[in-house]
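Bumping my old thread because nobody answered last time. Still need a sequence for this structure:
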């Protein structure tokens, strides 16, 4: 059977049982929508992903982009796929109606995009990058940039990218060297080099618009000297597109995401690359973080999608691949059984399910907070949602990527020897997934962001609000549990883990107050893991509670809902207990990796 990419019942469960997506329609911004329009959009995304994007996934992974005569050529299937995504309104799904968009909640946009990413992450990547770049102009651009560039990007006539990374800077954006020289005409002359620019050139649209970071001549060193510019491949002059001295210098050969080109980009080789300031000079990094934070949420959704696609491949294989016999059967003449009958295969399948569905709930919850942070009318509710969104973003980017890689490795393991061949897609999903741990900031960077900025930076306000949310879920679980669904014991486990996180956070804060910032931050990656395991456990407890409450009311969903309870039980038995040892490690201040130098690391 064809890969379903996601279990539709689980997506609907997360959207409606867990998060009550329709409740967003109480906000004036979404008042025109309801369950009917949400379901219509999601159904259309499912159909596009399964019937058109997925069949092109393997061909695009094999026949990769190439540079010919200064022009990047991509797989010919992309032209039709781009047209279909534009027609469905993928690029402007959450864009205001007055700008030609559908004004859907980010929650629906993220879930729809998850299907597209599961079907063909490279194809969907072009659309996601364009949305993000156009949104930056919408937020910070002047009226001319909105009219000349943003409108065409949202319409799908042109594509967009984010151009941050430089050869010498990597993730250290304070070291950006690309120059922007002011001119009397109001534009800037851009010169410099960018690398790893996803979708930086292609032959499916007539123009590519880069949202690039550069340093205006005379600007101070560091992040305060970085500004944001709109730098098109072809600039628009009196309604005509002309070359903008923005050249593709090479295509990188990638481990995964092979259908989406990653290129080296040269600005201003002839001294005629025009750039247009977006927002305030010197505020480029702050402006760019609007796109980067959205991209982090999408990386989490993409990682979830890739793991889900791999899971369904391995599940189908496990159901149909005969091998071996039950342990109790010793007669070699008895028929072999499908490998799903073996306990260890079921263990690997259940672990994938726990990771994927926990990740899906995490991405969806973050997206709902994004909707509330942007469109709540009550100032306190708006601020609260923003604090929660800021806090959860590093985990939403990292957990699905890191654990999704483990999940994809388990999928490959189920295929046995066939797993590492190209006969089945398990190996390609594993390759794709690894890139998600690097995209939009490595795991180490996300750990420092969570602990140093999101937890300590706001005095713990966001963590206090989340802890209150978890306390509510614990009480709801205790009220819903019974002998058949012993949620109380799960609730008690989570309560202890949250207390442990609070104690760990307080100890790290005291180190920071005393001036030992290194001691505070040394285990920030471990802190991110501890935090993420607790966040996923919170979501699994909520899903188990909702499943318990729904079983009696909807007996036809019994097996599906009991599956949620079984998966929650598994997660609390195998992963939540790990937070105790991680917390102890963090508090110990263990520093062998930090103090090791030179030959000690060889």
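Sorry it took so long. Here it is:
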């Amino acid at each position: 059977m064809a890969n379903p990419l996601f279990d539709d019942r689980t997506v609907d469960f997360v959207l409606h049982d867990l998060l009550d997506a329709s409740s967003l329609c109480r906000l004036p911004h979404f008042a025109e929508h309801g369950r009917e329009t949400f379901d219509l959009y999601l159904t259309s995304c499912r159909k596009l992903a399964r019937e058109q994007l997925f069949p092109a996934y393997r061909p695009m992974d094999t026949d990769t982009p190439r540079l010919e005569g200064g022009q990047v050529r991509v797989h010919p299937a992309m032209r039709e796929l781009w047209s279909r995504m534009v027609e469905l309104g993928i690029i402007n799904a959450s864009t205001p109606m007055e700008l030609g968009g559908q004004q859907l909640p980010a929650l629906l946009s993220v879930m729809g995009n998850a299907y597209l990413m599961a079907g063909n992450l490279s194809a969907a990547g072009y659309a996601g990058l364009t949305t993000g770049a156009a949104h930056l102009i919408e937020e910070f651009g002047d009226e001319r940039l909105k009219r000349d560039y943003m409108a065409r990007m949202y319409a799908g006539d042109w594509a967009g990218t984010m151009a941050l990374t430089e050869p010498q800077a990597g993730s250290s954006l304070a070291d950006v060297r690309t120059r922007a020289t002011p001119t009397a005409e109001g534009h800037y002359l851009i010169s410099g080099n960018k690398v790893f620019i996803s979708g930086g050139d292609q032959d499916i649209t007539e123009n590519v618009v880069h949202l690039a970071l550069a340093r205006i001549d005379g600007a101070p060193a560091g992040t305060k000297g970085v500004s944001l510019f709109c730098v098109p491949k072809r600039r628009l002059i009196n309604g005509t597109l002309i070359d903008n001295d923005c050249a593709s210098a090479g295509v990188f050969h990638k481990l995964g995401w092979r259908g989406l080109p990653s290129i080296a980009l040269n600005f201003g080789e002839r001294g005629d690359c025009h750039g247009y300031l977006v927002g305030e000079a010197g505020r480029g990094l702050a402006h760019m973080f609007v796109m980067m934070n959205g991209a982090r949420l999408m990386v989490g959704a993409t990682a979830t999608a890739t793991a889900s696609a791999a899971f369904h491949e391995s599940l189908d294989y496990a159901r149909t691949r005969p091998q071996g016999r039950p342990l109790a059967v010793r007669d070699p003449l008895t028929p072999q059984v499908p490998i799903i009958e073996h306990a260890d295969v079921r263990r690997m399948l259940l672990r994938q399910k726990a990771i994927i569905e926990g990740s899906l709930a995490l991405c969806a919850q973050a997206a709902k907070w994004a909707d509330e942070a942007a469109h709540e009318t009550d100032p306190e509710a708006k601020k609260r949602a923003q604090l929660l969104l800021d806090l959860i973003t590093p985990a939403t980017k990292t957990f699905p990527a890191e654990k999704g890689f483990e999940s994809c490795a388990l999928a490959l393991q189920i295929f046995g020897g066939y797993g590492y061949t190209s006969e089945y897609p398990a190996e390609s999903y594993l390759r794709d997934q690894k890139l998600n741990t690097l995209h939009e900031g490595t795991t180490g960077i996300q750990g420092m962001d969570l602990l140093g900025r999101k937890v300590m930076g706001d005095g713990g306000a966001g963590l206090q609000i989340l802890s209150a949310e978890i306390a509510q879920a614990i009480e709801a679980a205790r009220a819903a549990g019974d002998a058949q669904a012993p949620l109380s014991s799960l609730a008690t486990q989570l309560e202890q883990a949250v207390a442990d996180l609070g104690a760990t956070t307080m100890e790290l804060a005291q180190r920071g107050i005393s001036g030992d910032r290194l001691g505070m931050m040394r285990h920030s990656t471990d802190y991110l893991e501890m935090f993420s395991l607790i966040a996923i456990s919170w979501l699994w407890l909520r899903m188990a509670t909702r499943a318990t409450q729904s079983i009696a009311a909807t007996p036809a969903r019994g097996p599906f809902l009991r599956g949620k309870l079984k998966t929650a039980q598994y997660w609390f038995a195998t992963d939540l207990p790990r937070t105790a040892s991680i917390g102890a490690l963090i508090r110990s201040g263990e520093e062998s990796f930090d103090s090791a130098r030179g030959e000690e690391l060889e």
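The radius of gyration is 25 Å. Let me know if any region looks off to you.
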